[in-house]
Prior knowledge:
Two copies of one chain form a homodimer.
Chain A: E1 3-7, H1 12-24, E2 28-32, H2 43-48, E3 57-60, E4 63-66, H3 68-79, H4 89-116, H5 124-144, H6 158-163, H7 181-191, H8 199-202
Parallel strand pairs in A: 1-2
Antiparallel strand pairs in A: 1-3, 3-4
Helix pairs in contact in A: 1-3, 4-5
Amino acid sequence: MTIKLYCFGESGNSYKAALALELSGLDWEPVFVDFFKGAARSADYLEQVNNMGEVPVLVDGDIRLSQSGAIQQYISDKSGKFAGSDADKYEVLRWVLWDNHKLSSQAGMTRFLMNFLPEDKRPQEVIGFMLGRLKGAYTTLNAHLEGRDWIVGDGLTNADISCCGYLLYPEPFGFDRAEWPNIDRWLKNIEQLDGWKHPYDLMPGHPSDRA
Amino acid sequence: MTIKLYCFGESGNSYKAALALELSGLDWEPVFVDFFKGAARSADYLEQVNNMGEVPVLVDGDIRLSQSGAIQQYISDKSGKFAGSDADKYEVLRWVLWDNHKLSSQAGMTRFLMNFLPEDKRPQEVIGFMLGRLKGAYTTLNAHLEGRDWIVGDGLTNADISCCGYLLYPEPFGFDRAEWPNIDRWLKNIEQLDGWKHPYDLMPGHPSDRA
Lengths: 211, 211
């Protein structure tokens, strides 16, 4: 049975799930959620897909999961990929949580505020504050990647898939790859993986759709 | 060997780890990190405990772990507790991630800004924005707990331990138990657990130490 992923192109959290599915070799298809038109808050979506209005959501037969990190774990369990070695399992989980806690949650929100809100509604003090916190996260990740090709161990794991979720998008949110050489090198490693696709090539939905 | 937890009383993320250790029955002891005096950024701490300056950190023999969610998983694996049923494992992980992503990360920061920064340095627009986002998280959790005693299944899991991390603290951060009856009832279930302790009774460090 084909796995369905409710997602949209602009969503870095969706991208984590979509990239894991694509690279895992599992049979999957995206189902477009027109998030910017409120589709994730529609009565149908809340009733039939996710009662918290979350995106992404993975549906595989009777399994229905939200939160990209939980979806990634499910894909790992099903495909046998991206979990890292058994000795590294806590380290992988630690970086997935760090990402959810310190990087993606803030990058996603900041990118939304800076790009997807009308210009006159962008809270500048909030954006400035978030840019400062994000700089701390980039500093941490860049330092960790010194001398490393991957975040944990010697190959792609869920730690990489989680942390790269927002960093490959072109819209500004205070992240410039050229300023962070280790992050840049690591992102190139990801981009060179067999079967890798950019978020906007992997999922339906693009900012130009709303132009 | 006694497990050591580097922690401090004001830290809700530390509390998640400390509460899991205390309720697990494992042998543990807190090691006070004088966070507000910069101890987590000291050269010794960065070199010997955690090179990212994170708190909490669990040390168990050769095992050294940061990120409360990863520590909780380790405690579950070691003690056999709080993981929920096998069928519920993704649901537990989903709520731990939701908490890290939507609840604790924002509650912790907002509580810090509202209480632990000097009054003249509190960014009011940021605080107001965060209070709005937190209200969304409380709404989600309160709705989920309608008719439920625990977040997942019929007993305490890491989902509960994660989500309660900041909600038992007295300092204001826009959360008033009286406004959220299902959350209030669920917190009472936690407080009535055999061996439960309040954060300030479980870990060294209290705001009055700095008065």
